Amino acid sequence: MATTVRWKRRPEGSNWGEFGPGDQLGRLNLITPERVRAAVAEVREGRRFCLSLPLDFPGGTAINATRLPPRLMPVMEGNQPNMNFPYSRKNPRHRDVLCDDQVLLTLQYSTQWDALAHIGQEFDADDDGEAEIVYYNGFRAGEDIAGPVEYRPDGTQVETGQETGARALGVENMARAGLQGRGVMIDFKAHYGEERVLVGYDALMRILEKDRVAVEPGDLVCIRTGFDEMLLSMNRQPDAAKLRGSFAALDGRDKGLHRWITESGLVALASDNIAVEGTPARACEDEHCTALPLHELCLFKLGVYLGEFWHLSELADWLRAHGRSRFLLTAPPLRLPGAVGSPVTPVATV
Ligand code: UVW
């Protein structure tokens, strides 16, 4: 990968270039060996929590019509499915039995990470007066993030003949970095119960102060809203309207919150809900405004990762009962080259 600067203008409030012109890791650069040692020092009991939902949750397509539940299938050998396949069929002396499967998996259906290639913007990074599609640190649609069609500014689309995949900013970068660090839990449910509220900077600061939670550079911040418990109770038949109308979520349009995310040095925001930020975002009066303001700030401007549909309730309850908020978090995504998001089975150790 060339290390020339890819942009002449960078978005206001972005940190593009601060980790180098070819940087693809973003804030993961802040998880130094010293910070991993600090995370490991949070392990006192040796107890572990699985922070993933079963990957067939939420269930169906009511939450997102374009993301499908995983479909398991046997690997086929000719027309013969390799499930409970007796080797004796091939060689009567063999007694082995084989199961071998494959899956059709929407990578962001359930507990997931968004990679930095997940959300870009139409932005004039080369300062020629016209916006082009760019991603974190100026990586480009087409050259770096490839898809089957090019969406042109005049509203047309043409086939590219390219294979789909992120040649930069893909999820494999997070995996190769060995994503592990200090998790910090912020418990909205303990303060708001099931009430639907958008939490901005002021309210967040009150919660941090009340619960004595400190967020430091390099931290992986988890926000428990209560969404996961309700979702699990719906047992794969989610009532999308009820879920969307319940629980506190971050107010993505709150400028104070943006400042805090920028200045805190946090590396990731993971939540048990659909999008970390409340969706749809509050109405915006500007001519151009982003539909997903925290996605824009985090993935596009700062190289901060977003985790969604995490299963946080058991850990959050345990931490609160023990007067703690910090833990060791180990959460590498799949090392799947070119993917823009990934299922993850995060493990918290306390
Ligand atoms: C979108 O819905 C676009 O993304 P996410 O899954 O990150 O919320």
Characterise the protein shown here.
This protein has 350 residues and is of the alpha+beta class. 19% of the residues lie in helices and 21% in strands. The two termini are 39 Å apart. The model has no long low-confidence stretch (mean pLDDT 97). The structure holds acetylphosphate. Acetylphosphate binds next to strand 20.
How are the SSEs ordered, and which strands pair?
Blueprint: H1 33-40, E1 48-50, E2 71-74, E3 76-77, E4 80-81, E5 85-86, E6 97-98, E7 101-104, E8 112-114, E9 121-123, E10 132-134, E11 145-146, E12 149-151, E13 157-159, E14 165-166, H2 172-176, E15 180-187, H3 189-192, E16 198-199, H4 201-210, E17 220-224, H5 227-233, H6 240-244, E18 249-250, H7 255-264, E19 268-271, H8 293-302, E20 305-308, H9 313-321, E21 326-330, E22 341-343, E23 347-349
Parallel strand pairs: 15-17, 16-18, 17-19, 19-20
Antiparallel strand pairs: 1-23, 2-7, 3-4, 5-6, 8-20, 8-22, 9-10, 11-14, 12-13, 15-21, 21-23
The protein binds acetylphosphate.
